[in-house]
Amino acid sequence: MFRNVGFREIIFSVNCFIAVMLSLFIAFRLELKNPWWAMLTVYLTSQTLSGAMRAKAVYRIIGTLISGIVMLTIVPNLVDAPELTAAAIILWVAFCLYVSLLDRTPRSYMFVLSGYTAALVGFPTVLDPGGIWDTAIGRMEEIVLGTVSAAVVHSVIFPRSVTSAVFAKQTAMLANARRWIADGLRREPTPEIEREQRQIASDVTDLAILATNLPYDTASRPPNSKLVRAFDESVVAILPLLSVIEDRIAMLRRSGPSQQIESLIASVADWCQRTDGGDSAEADRLKRECAAAMPDTHMQASWTDLITVSLLARLHELIDSWRGCLELAALMRNPSAVRTRGVRASIAGLGAKPLHIDHGTAALSALTAACAISICCAFWIATAWPQGAVATGFVAVICSLFAALDDPTPTMSTLTAGIVASIPIAALYQFAVLPAIDGYVALVVCLGPPLLFFGVLMAIPRYAAFGLAPILGFTVLLAFQPQYAADMASFLNSAIALVIGSLVGIATTRLIRVMGAQASVRRLLRSGWQDLANLADRTLVATRGEWASQMLDRVGLLAPRMSQAGNDPELAYGDALRDLRTGVVVIELHETVSRLDGHGRKSLAAVLPGVARHFRALARGRRRPPGPGLLASIDALIGDMLGVSSRTLRHIGLTAAIGLRRNLYPDAPPYAAQTQKVEVKG
User: 664-669 — which CB contacts under 8 Å span 24+ positions?
Assistant: First the structure.
């Protein structure tokens, strides 16, 4: 554990401690009712990156204000019906949790906080609604104080900017992509290359999420978030391209490619490995070589010629994509550099990155939280337990914070164990240490050892829960007031309430919400298959970039889960990278055939409904390969593409149709020549 402790971890802990002491000092001077809320807020808000910290601070303040306004609306209007008040608070928490899980950016913190802060503010006033105004205003003041203290300290004392993390991620992504491209072009695909592909998929999503914090960063010149988004898109474009190229190279090498093609592949690999983005002349030369090496495509073209066409077309795209990727990477570091027309086009009109969302899991998580809170709330109201509101509020916290995990119970259990471990420490301080000290300086000295130690743990991702849990329990149980007051009965009641709230949350989550790796993988795969079906029948309309971004996000989500999923027959049909490529060629076919007359449209009308039926069946759990009828329709489409008079359009259509054939029927015999002709409109 201590091998992971370095300068940054120590600085993070020291900053948190300084922010805590600052917020307590101000709270005591202002005689706020519950200064410990400011203390707790510092630790709940703090992040190792200063830009992410400030973003979280903004979201926390907004969420706190929203929750206060909602409680000031609900409680007075239901003052005579505590059961209805509790039900309204529960519904609000569930709604906020549901919405937060549909937004996988840091902004989701605003929604989840609006929910559980409302519970912490509202439940203590259910049986005493007259105190809602003082409670809500007090909580908002204390939370804002803690948030601002944390943001200021982390921004001033050795801040670690998001920009530095973005540049580090960019450098690693370029190095991985460069190595992967070179390996993919020079040798047969291997499990190592496939792991690199999936690592890049995770990095792409991480970079996009990280970039959302750039507007709040402490760096003097953070990169433009649109440039980061465009770079992200350019890396996304490379992944399906190279997967196709690897497949086509493997096919050609089995039949013996020409020396010209092998030499061209080697040249592209060398250029990708050594280029820094400045040798555009070499890129243009390689693209001309790709065009010159294109075989003559006619109605009787061989399967080898068609595979060569597909390979060379994708190599041409790879050169453009890699050059654009490098140009954008350079622009991120130097925004004043000259922007080419291609770079300007890639930035224009970019919106937020499409990410995978799961409405079903979000709704189930919201239901779980509602059930857990209802159980605690019913017990509290029925027994008139003095600390029942604490237990009920803590259930809302613990069910909300970890709802994004497939199985939240291990983390919830760790948090509970940390809270239990903090009880004797808090008791020692409450009844032995604090009565013996006098003054603020002595308080700082005595709080330093535990808070600094647990703060270091919080800075280490692997041990973050071990660090946060004792701090949470320690802070809540000490419950600093403007004047020292210690009561053993109240202390024990609060400790029991925290533990009971945690156990109710864990038990309810285990009964309703826990999702194993297999179930999670199935849901991800079926979401992709359903989207593919919708893409094929035009129920879903997406650009190539939008489709690739969302599917690559799914690839990144699937990667860590597939190794835990075990042997599930449905997983044999699951290959998110192949689904990504399939969606790309479906989009290309829609775009290409819209410019054709006659048999091209008729063939597509036969192909795409079959594709939609196949993937819709997979999405419904019917595990069977596509039938021979769809293969015949795809072959007819290839024949129609061979008859297109426009050479450029013919190659685009052939590349897409061949890609669809290879994705759906990788073991099918070679294509047999057709004899039809299609005219281009206009």
Answer: 664/582, 664/611, 664/614, 664/626, 664/630, 664/631, 664/634, 665/626, 665/631, 665/634, 668/631
Shared domain check, 183 and 112: no
As a whole number of angstroms, the distance between CA 586 and CA 233 comes to 19
Is the pLDDT at 358 greater than 50, yes or no? yes
Could you tell me if 124 and 175 lie in one domain? no
Q: What is the identity of the amino acid at 391?
A: A
Alpha-carbon span 254 to 65, nearest angstrom:
65
Question: Contact 48/459 with Cβ under 8 angstroms?
Answer: yes
Rounded CA gap, 328 and 230, in Å?
7
User: Can you give the pLDDT at residue 681?
Assistant: 43
Residue 299 pLDDT exceeds 50? yes
410 inside domain: yes
Decide: 367 and 512 in contact? Cβ < 8 Å. yes
Domain count along the chain: 3
- 677, pLDDT greater than 50: no
With cut-offs at 50, 70 and 90, classify the pLDDT of residue 567: low
Highest average pLDDT, of 186-200, 367-381, 661-675, comes from 367-381
**Contact (Cβ atoms closer than 8 angstroms) between residue 50 and residue 166:** no
CA atoms within 13 A on the CB side of 639: 18
Q: Tell me if 346 sits within 8 A of 230, measured CB to CB.
A: yes
- Taking CA atoms, 424 is separated from 342, 428, 429, 477, 493, in Å, by 64, 6, 9, 10, 14
**155 domain-assigned:** yes
Which of 465, 485, 505 is a domain's end point? 485
Domain with 224 in it:
162-347
Q: In 334-483, at which residue ranges do the beta strands (DSSP E only) sit?
A: none
Q: What is the pLDDT of residue 351?
A: 61
Closest of 246, 248, 243, 249 to residue 654, by C-alpha: 248
Phi, psi of 648 (to 5 degrees): -65, -50
Same domain, 176 and 150: no
Q: Are residues 142 and 198 in the same domain?
A: no
Is the pLDDT at 59 greater than 60, yes or no? yes
Closest CA to 430 of 385, 386, 473: 473
Query: Which of 347, 381, 416 marks a domain boundary?
Result: 347
Q: Name the 3-class secondary structure at 678.
A: strand
pTM of the predicted structure, to 2 decimals: 0.84
**Same-domain status, 153 and 166:** no
Residue 563 has pLDDT above 70, yes or no: no
* Single-letter residue type at 65: L
* 680 beta partners: 596
Which residues are bridge partners to 678 per DSSP?
644
- Single-letter amino acid code for the residue at 199: Q
**DSSP E strands: which ranges in 205-291?**
none
Residues 6 or more apart whose Cβ sits within 8 Å of residue 443 = 24, 434, 437
Written as six digits, the tokens of 497 are 């309430």
- Does residue 382 lie in a domain region? no
DSSP 462: G
595 closest CA partner among 526, 644, 550, 636: 644
Residue 195 and residue 142 share a domain: no
Same domain, 35 and 121: yes
